[in-house]
């Protein structure tokens, strides 16, 4: 199954919204845990920890945005 998004590109629609939300939450929790762990391990000591810390921060932002985008927003009725 596939649908078209706003840009006209097709995207898979096989997963339910609940499953997508769950995956986004798991991703956020995992990347946050990794971010905290690498932060406590003194990232200045090794280049690998620095990179892991940086990329887990990027992952947290990405998963957070994905989670945010899965919730429908009600149109505001303003004047």
TrEMBL record:
Keywords: Membrane, Transmembrane, Transmembrane helix
The species this protein was found in: Pseudodesulfovibrio alkaliphilus
Name of the protein in question: Uncharacterized protein
Transmembrane segments: 22-40, 52-68
Residue ranges, annotated region (Disordered): 1-20
């Amino acid at each position: 199954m596939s649908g078209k998004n706003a840009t006209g590109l097709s995207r898979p629609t096989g997963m339910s919204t609940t499953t997508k939300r769950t995956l986004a939450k798991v991703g956020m929790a995992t990347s946050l845990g990794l971010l905290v762990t690498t932060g406590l391990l003194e990232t200045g000591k090794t280049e690998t920890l620095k990179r892991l810390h940086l990329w887990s921060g990027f992952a947290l932002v990405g998963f957070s945005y994905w989670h945010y985008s899965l919730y429908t927003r009600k149109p505001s009725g303003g004047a």
